[in-house]
Amino acid sequence: MGGNAALAELSTHFTGASAIFTTSPLYRALCPVVAADTTTIELLTHRRPGQQASYLFFGAVHYLLLGGVGHELRTFYPSVVGPAARAPEAAGPALVDFCRTYRAELTELVRTRLVQSNVVRRAAGLRFALAALRRRIPGPVHLVEVGASAGIHLRVDRYRYLIGGHPFGPPDAAVTIQSDWLGAGVPPDLDDVPAIASRIGVDLNPVHATDEADRRWLRALVWPEDRAGADLLAAALDEVVRDPPRIIAGDAVDVCPGLGAGLPPGEPRVVFHAATRMHVPAARRAAFDRAIDAIGEGGPLFHVWQEPASAPHHGEVADGRDVIAFHGPGDTTPVSLVRIDGHLRWLAPLNGTT
């Protein structure tokens, strides 16, 4: 895509991006500012293919502010100055000046970093899927997460869950995930899940939970008003530090075909990814799907995902709503399991009732 066309597409993206940041008044106020400023938008032309522009841009800005950069823009961020943060509607001029002042630093972050949001609550979606698959998987499973970042979701069995106030998981867990349940009755039994025999992550650029800069990058991807989400992330990262999972650095297209062969023959494996396929360049998505399917060559594969309808597995759209979906061995047709909010603030039965 030519330079002017790329800038026009980015401007259009930011014009509509306010609708994405439903719980961030600051980002909603700043999206049209970015859309109207060509110099700022040009920063995003340095990003890697497939990276969601607004998440990456706001993450880069947030990262520098969390690192202590002394600029007026910091006074608009609740994550930096707390309740004293100024009204977001007035932040536009400060953002434009910030982007000019720290252009070199922002360009480097946009060029090298990836959108690797570890939304801890998404572990509740994986937990729901494991419970749903329990009827089809009587024994232990091998868990693989593609786009694992720091590996937080690989600890799905170590967390406590409060789903609509109903507790599941270890009562003494260091991490508690709370989500609303919008069904008329109680949620399914999320304690009845398969044991996890092994866990492996795959990521283009694994994030190390012990590295301060990496932890700050993950924190920067949490929206500035979401203090609860930031605290939950910190607790989950500490849990990962206590028992780090194995995470393989590399492109899933290259790594996944060899994973299945390395697992015990005939034993079931569950592959999970959340908001990962959406970042895969469109031209590589078919190869991405084939690579995941290859993990099933050594044993029955259950493929679970949380992705937008705009990035359907194998091009098949089973549900236009936000859902946790899966396909089982020998069948790539998606099956929806539960409706969700994108950040798993709530879950709901597919038909609106239990």
Explain the overall architecture.
This protein is an alpha/beta fold. Helix content is 35%, strand content 16%. It has an 11-stranded mixed β-sheet, sandwiched between helices. 43% of the residues are buried.
What is the CA-CA span between the terminal residues? Answer: 48 Å
- The parts where pLDDT drops under 50 for at least 5 residues are none
Structure summary, number of beta strands = 11
Molecular shape = globular
Range of helix content: 25-40%
Estimated structural class = alpha/beta
Largest sheet: 11 strands, mixed
**What is the residue-averaged pLDDT?**
93
Rg to the nearest angstrom?
Answer: 20 Å
Query: Which strand order do you get reading across the main beta sheet?
Result: 3-2-4-11-10-9-8-7-1-5-6
Q: What portion of the residues fall into strands of 2 or more residues? A: 15-25%
Query: Count of DSSP helices?
Result: 12
Order of helices and strands: HHHHHHHHEEEEEHHEHEHEEEE
Task: Kindly list the characteristics that best describe this protein.
single chain, 354 residues, alpha/beta, 11-stranded mixed β-sheet, 35% helix, 16% strand, globular
Chart the SSEs and their pairings.
Layout: H1 3-16, H2 25-35, H3 38-41, H4 53-66, H5 78-81, H6 92-101, H7 103-112, H8 122-133, E1 141-146, E2 160-163, E3 166-168, E4 176-181, E5 196-203, H9 212-220, H10 227-242, E6 246-249, H11 252-262, E7 269-274, H12 285-294, E8 301-306, E9 323-327, E10 335-340, E11 346-348
Parallel strand pairs: 1-5, 1-7, 2-4, 4-11, 5-6, 7-8
Antiparallel strand pairs: 2-3, 8-9, 9-10, 10-11
Helix pairs in contact: 1-2, 2-6, 4-7, 4-9, 11-12
